[in-house]
Design a protein that fits this description.
Radius of gyration: 27 Å
CATH topology of one domain: Hemocyanin, Chain: A, domain 2
CATH superfamily of one domain: Haemocyanin C-terminal domain
Structural class: alpha+beta
Number of helices: 9
Pfam family, one: TGFb_propeptide
GO molecular function: cytokine activity; growth factor activity
Subcellular location: Secreted
Low-confidence stretches: 3-7, 239-270
CATH class of one domain: Mainly Beta
Order of helices and strands: HHHEEEHEEEHEEEHHEEHEEEHEE
Family: Belongs to the TGF-beta family.
Number of strands: 16
Distance between the termini: 12 Å
Mean pLDDT: 78
Strand content: 25-35%
Largest sheet: 8 strands, antiparallel
CATH architecture of one domain: Sandwich
InterPro entries: Cystine-knot_cytokine (IPR029034), TGF-b_C (IPR001839), TGF-b_propeptide (IPR001111), TGF-beta-rel (IPR015615), TGFb_CS (IPR017948)
Helix content: 10-25%
Length: 382
């Protein structure tokens, strides 16, 4: 029998929904509980995030990044657009002066591979002050340090340099600094996370105060300009796609279409209909996150079309069914009754696409995560 566990699971969840009728049997409730548990495993989670329903707006950077890598349904536009399969954003949690920042990275698992980490600071336009008139300089060096000793940040032993660059005093824009070594150390030893220190100097090395070069803070400026740490990781959760096993074949499938449009497909459909069967093809299967009870923490998409494969793979298998050689031989053995207990080939996805979720985690951090093998791109007989 062909396995359709994934499609059946999604259909069950969508049909049951969070507001099940009171007349549902205990067995049905148990099945729903197990189905939700299994679905969380598919999404790499032990429990659904319990964060409040969008108490804050997601950073514009994360929204723009999501729209860059995903279409309106969350389906990945192209492979390799995203560095790794997870992007996390962390707001500044410090309560100290403007030039010190702290980010809580407790939600990052040690098993995740750190690929890159960036400090995003929104630089405010410099004020015209006596300092500027005195120094007569319009460019300053901004350096980011990892704090090693929070009790002594004024000495070389108290911090180490991570990134440095020259900025114009009067520009107002986002500035991005690479801080990967510090974040790697923090994820391996959470106690080592003392935060970051930013030092502004003239090009001759004279340290300046925050009246000349200023950065927006979460406390004093709009939330859209708050300091942010962006972390790119990979948890190495890669599915085994049908396209991987069929690497030698290239199928141009339009995700927006509901059925494959290949040569002789209509002829094959007519032949199977005359026998009272529907040929193997792709059908819509919309997964609504609100029906599942996940709308409170998922930012985008609101749902997606997973599609599912349905139909028979009758002898003879035409090329429009994209059969493997094994499926062709199996269909012949089945049709000629050359062996007992040999079923006809299965109608299953032979091309799978990934989707992207943008969501809040338990700490109200915004996460962009890519999940493989979530959308059936096309169907074939295997």
């Amino acid at each position: 029998m062909c396995s359709r566990l994934g499609a059946s699971l999604l259909l069950l969840l969508v049909s049951l929904g969070p507001g099940c009728p009171s007349s549902l049997s205990r067995h049905s409730e148990q099945v729903r509980s197990e189905a939700l548990k299994r679905l969380l495993e598919v999404f790499g989670m032990e429990d659904a995030p319990q964060s409040p329903h969008r108490l804050r707006q997601p950073p514009q950077y994360m929204l723009d990044l999501y729209n860059t890598v995903a279409d309106v349904d969350g389906v990945t536009k192209a492979p390799d657009l995203l560095l790794g399969n997870t992007v996390r954003s962390f707001p500044d949690r410090s309560r100290s002066q403007q030039f010190q920042f702290f980010f809580n990275l407790s939600s990052v698992a040690k098993s995740e591979t750190i690929l890159a980490a960036e400090l995003h600071l929104f630089k405010l336009r410099g004020r015209l002050s006596q300092d500027i008139l005195y120094h007569r300089q319009h460019f300053y060096q901004v350096s980011v340090y990892q704090i090693l000793n929070s009790n002594n940040t004024s000495t070389a032993e108290g911090h180490r340099l991570l990134s440095s660059r020259v900025l114009a005093a009067h520009d107002s824009t986002w500035e991005v600094f690479t801080i990967t070594p510090a974040v790697y150390a923090w994820t391996q030893d959470k106690a080592s996370n003392k935060g970051l220190l930013v030092i502004v100097q003239t090009l001759t090395g004279q340290q300046l105060n925050n009246h000349i070069v200023r950065f927006a803070t979460g406390r004093d400026h709009h939330a859209s300009k708050q300091p942010m740490l962006v972390l790119f990781t990979d948890d190495e959760r890669r599915g085994i796609t049908a396209s991987t096993s069929l690497r030698g074949k290239i199928f141009m499938i339009d995700v927006a279409t509901e059925t494959p449009t290949l040569p002789h497909a209509k002829l094959q459909n007519r032949n199977t209909r005359s026998l009272g069967f529907e040929a193997c093809q792709r059908y819509p299967l919309y997964v609504d996150f609100e029906d599942i009870g996940w709308a409170g923490w998922i930012i985008s998409p609101r749902g997606y079309n997973a599609y599912h494969c349905k139909g028979v793979c009758v002898f003879p298998l035409g090329q429009n069914m994209r059969p493997t050689n094994h499926a062709t031989v199996q269909s012949i053995i089945n049709a000629l009754k050359l062996a007992n207990g040999v079923a006809s080939p299965c109608c299953i996805p032979d091309k799978l696409f990934s989707i992207n979720l943008l969501y809040f985690d338990d700490d109200e951090n915004v996460v962009l995560k890519q999940y493989d093998d979530m959308v059936a791109g096309s169907c074939g007989c295997h």
